[in-house]
Amino acid sequence: MPPSTEDPVVTSSRREAAVALVLWAVAMAYTVGYSYAFGYGRAAEDVRLIFGIPDWVLWGIFAPWIFWTIVSSLFAKFFMRDARIEEEAADPAGQAGEAAEGNDG
Amino acid sequence: MGDPSSAGLGTLTMLLLVIAASVWLGTVAQRAVERGSFMKSYFLGNRGLGSWALALTATVQSGGTFMGFPSLVYSNGWIVALWISSYMVVPLTGFAVLAKRFAQLSRRTGAITVPDLFRERFGDPRVGLVASLLILFFMTVMMVAQFKAGALIMKVSLPGSGALALTEDGQGSWDRFYYFGLVVFTLTVVGYTVIGGFLAAVWTDLFQSVLMWIGVMLLLPLAIVAAGGLPAASERLRYEVVTKPSSADEQAEQAELWAPVLQRLKAIDAALRAYATAHDGKLPPDLQSLTSMTWDNGHFRPHELQYLGRDKSLDDLDQRMPLIVTPTNEKGWRAVLFASGVVKTGRISAPGDLVTGPGPFDYLALGLAISFFFQWAFSGMGSPASMVRVMACRDTTTVRRSIFLLGTYNLCIYIPLILICICAHSILPGLSLKNSDEVIPRVALHTTSGFFGGSFIAGLILAAPFGAVMATVSSYLVVIASGLVRDVYQRFINPEATTHELKRLSYTAMVVVGAIGLAANIKPVDYLQKLVVFSGTCGAVTFVVPAIMAAYWRRATAAGVMAGMLGGVAVNVVLYAAGLVYLREFKAIAVLGLDPIVWGLAASLVAGVAVSLCTTPPDPRLVAKLFDVAEPAGETGPIKPELA
Lengths: 105, 644
Hints:
Distance between the termini of chain B: 69 Å
Low-confidence stretches of chain A: 95-105
Order of helices and strands of chain B: HHHHHHHHHHHHEHEEEEHHHHHHHHHH
Radius of gyration of chain B: 28 Å
Order of helices and strands of chain A: HEEHHH
Helix content of chain A: 55-70%
Strand order of the largest sheet of chain B: 1-5-4-3-2
Oligomer: heterodimer
Helix content of chain B: 55-70%
Distance between the termini of chain A: 49 Å
Radius of gyration of chain A: 24 Å
Largest sheet of chain B: 5 strands, antiparallel
Number of helices of chain B: 23
Mean pLDDT of chain B: 84
Number of helices of chain A: 4
Number of strands of chain B: 5
Structural class of chain A: mainly alpha
Shape of chain B: elongated
């Protein structure tokens, strides 16, 4: 458990990252699983074409593609938290360089 | 547009417009750069990227999207939809996993480059050094390989180059048109990148992404109409076959072996035609019905041959339809008799492979399908060029909006591209697997040659990949230059360098790296493409796990993160080395059928976590500074680097 002093930006980002990775895994399981089950090793004559798209491509890839695009958008709109990101810290390497800027820029 | 093997003047005009626009964007970027401190604005655009710039440039796979990928669809059919399908979740993996936190972390640490961020996060210069050396190596390899693509597109669009003639002559590529293209490409891309730095790279990238979208939207209806509709094109793929190229030696060796089979198929062809003539053009229901054939001697009995002509009428058949297909021999060769009467031997795919998995020649076995779900999702996330853009984004609203924009963009680019290339198989059946790289330009020139202004549309469609390649090279140039100037020179050689020195050095670094790219492509090596795949995988397995550890795991240590980086690379290198020894080619061994990216990520995870847990926990003050709500000023002492 992260300590209670943790910046809420860190906590919410971590949660969002975890959910995103889970969604990625679910998407893989479905798309690869469906395509393997219904698209692999089939006789070409048995493949039904829907608007010219093989059935397994439509239901295994194109339909979930639309689904995940909608899910991603909802995720971004309702699940992800906006956060105020603080101002920039001083450049850890270039104090000398930045200080000299006025002279030769 | 009399000569369809060369592009028209319109094409060249469009390309010159893209070049002009890129240079213009470079000068606009330069003005923006002058506003902030040099390092932060030149290499990071003052952290001001908006959602369009972030969404359409951080993970879009640039050059390959318009060249390599279409060629794969053309050559392997519908299975490539599965190969590319992880792009459906790339908006999530690309922007929801790291972006928000990296934007914050890089501000808290003041980091300008990816090695900077690792170095400051763990308070250890060695982490930064390991990261920058790895980045310099991978990025240089990947950048060098892009030059050839740029030069080739330039060449294709030059009137009179004849680049689109259907010749198999590989030597023809290295002529004066190629060199001219190479020089123009290098001068342009290095020129505008030097002028405008990071922002120039981002803005040209955004510009080409929009061009690419327009190009695809224009080409989709043109291709569908030219193919006689998508259903017709797809029907054709049910029986179409593709041939793998084979060497002259192999052909000579196999020719003798297959001579009797050829005889046999010719005889069957004659018998089939005789049967059809006697039966109103109808072909027999099976080969046994060919009473004129004597099957007893010679190769193949009827049941051994795949017969596709059952109940079809010879007159209505597509001439490209295979009628008889033999089984393959131990070398993978087979013979095919086509409806045209032509017999071909070679490594020919089985009919039907273009509409089912795993595709022709076992193109995408299950393990590979899984591997590519890792590949696209994580290579976009782990590439230093992408991470830098995330560090440069303006705020969190930008990140959220980018997820939506990129999702919509990917949907509108990849699915139409798949459909276009499926149609291309009908429109341009003759492309060999070797010159199918130019399938999109060829379809563009072919479908637009009929009407006024067509060559401008073709030009637009050609300009998009050219812009994509330029943008890729440009963004790599920025990363490489920042690696040399910031991570090596400023950090280790001369921390006191003035802005003037840093500026001069950045420009010099870009020009030198550009010159290396040019020199390496005067006679490009064939295995360069494989080196790109290798480097790309290295990038992902180096940075994905360490980046997640750095972002979210308080207990992660400097040693752990270095172990994560090196562990991933080590596994990748070992798998490729094993491939060199056992397969005798530059190809990784696929343990359990999975690509090295999966094993590399796993190794990186295990090494990173295990070594972190075995080393002393990091300085709590350093962790608190980067993970906790900012403390009121005045109580923080100097922070000791954990392993120093």
